[in-house]
Each structure stands twice: as C-alpha cells, then as structure tokens.
Amino acid sequence: MAVRKEIDGSASVPEFYGAELRYQREAAGLTLEKTVEGSFYGVSYLSEIERGERRMPEALARHVDQVLKTDGFFERRCGDVRKARKRGHADYFERILEAEKHADTIEEWAPTLFPGLLQTEAYARAVVRATHPLELDGETEAKVSARLARARLFEDDRSRPDYWVILHEGLLKLSILPPEQMAEQLNRVIDLAEQRRIYPQVLSWKTGAHPFMLGTAMIMTFVDAPPLVYTESLHSGSTIDDPGLVKDYRRSYDRLRAAALPPEASLALIESAAEDYRNGKQPG
Q1: pTM for the model
Q2: Domain residues of the chain, as ranges?
Q3: CB under 8 Å, gap of 24 or more: what pairs does 223-232 form?
Q4: CB 183 within 8 A of CB 215
Q5: Domain 91-278, CATH 1.20.1070 — does that match?
Q6: pLDDT tens-place values along the chain, 284 residues long
Q7: How far is it, in rounded angstroms, from Cα 112 to Cα 171?
C-alpha cells in the first residue's frame, strides 16, 4: 500500500507536486519505467520530478494523467509549479532555467549581448539597469545574483553540458562598460574556453547574409527528454518543443556555425580585443 509523505506545499510547490505524483504512481502499482512507457521521457526525468528537482512538462503531465487515471490532475497543476519560480528571473525563463541544469548540450547564438551564462557581474548589472532603469536597487541586485548563479553549471565536471556559443564580432567592439571592465568580460570567455568549459566561435562582420539574421537562439538536448529551443526578445521569451521547428532551428544553427570563424581563430580575435581594452583602446 502506498504511503503518502506529508509535504508542506507552501514551502515547496515542486516537492508537493512530486510527492503527490509518487503517491499516485505507487497507489496504481506502477514502476517509474511503466509510468513513462509510451512517452518521449526517460525514467530519470520522472524520478527527478518526484523529488521536486524538475518541472513536469505539459505533454508528460497529460501522459501521466492517462496512465494513472487521475482525470487531468497533474496537467491542471503544472501551472502551480510554474508559478513557484525563483526570485530574480522572469517567469517565461523558468523552464529554461531548470532545463539548462539537466542539458547534455547547449548551443547558443548571441548577436547583440554576451549570453547570461557568460556575463561578468559588471556586464550583467549594466544590462539589467539598461533594461529596467527605474527599478529599485534590491531588485536589480537579485537579478544580477540570479544570473551569476546560473554559471555554476560549468563547475561540475560530472554533469556540465557541452556548451557551444557563436558570438557576433560586434559584441567584441560594443563597449557598454569602461575599458577595464570590458576586458574582464572578454577574459571571462577566454578563461572558460582555455579550461575547456566552452567552445566559442565568432561570426565576422565580413560574413554578409547568414542563416540566422533574425533573433537569438539557445538549443538544448537531453539524455532523457526531447530537445528544446529558447528564443528571446526584449520583454518576452518563447520555449519551442515542436519537433519540426526544433529541426529547423537546428539546421539554421549548423549553417551559422559553418559560416563562423573556427574556435582557434575566434579565441585569438577575442584575446586581441581584450588586449586593446586593457590598453585603453577601442578594438577594431
């Protein structure tokens, strides 16, 4: 007989949701393997949901409701878990904030800003203040701290993803900070590359028309779940999981990578720009 573990839902909505899922699964006499059978998700994915470590995608929630005969309960409660978001991040980013911690690979295209995973404290603060000029200092600092915390995924050799980023050359010359702080930002990218944490490429000004002239993209793959694409504009973001669209983004990104400079030449260009900033000069 399944035993219901009492969880304070006000303290942890994901844990409350996961505990109920485990209770209903065990009450139905099903293993994790049997519960995910017929879905696109793996056993480890469902196990992490039960432990409150991962959110339930709507597609998986519908599958679970059907298998456990729970009359749409878990699909309806997906929204409650989404609302239990961490301070410092926009609600539309919450799915990606969790997904990147479990990603096997992350590939990003950054045409106008250094990606959040690569930003220094000074760079992140400048971006947040420029986007939200009237907010209180405490709110800004919460956003900066939350952004910096994301980069911890590069520190765990056992679980860190393969991270590939394509930067537009204009980013090396767009000095939104004083020269010494811009040098620090570029050194952040250089250090991660030299430690084999990331693979940066630069798309040259001279490339001309290329396959990704509109928008940003973050493409993630997983061992136990279908791939995702995340795109972002000024005050909104969209997560794409439709297989056809994901395939289109994947194809465009591969073509963009082919048009960019090789990693070695890209790193040399970034190092040259950092040296210019250290000497008080404008790169290029």
Answers
A1: 0.74
A2: 13-83, 91-278
A3: 223/42, 223/44, 223/104, 224/41, 224/42, 224/43, 224/44, 224/45, 224/102, 225/40, 225/41, 225/42, 225/45, 225/57, 225/102, 226/40, 226/41, 228/95, 228/96, 228/99, 230/96
A4: no
A5: no
A6: 455 555 444 446 678 788 888 888 999 899 999 999 998 898 988 898 888 878 888 888 899 999 999 988 888 887 666 655 555 677 778 888 889 988 999 999 999 999 999 999 999 999 999 999 998 888 899 889 989 988 888 987 777 899 999 999 999 999 999 999 999 999 999 999 999 999 999 999 899 899 899 889 999 999 989 999 999 988 899 999 999 999 999 999 999 999 999 999 999 999 999 999 999 988 87
A7: 6
Class of domain 13-83: mainly alpha
Tokens of 154: 């590069």
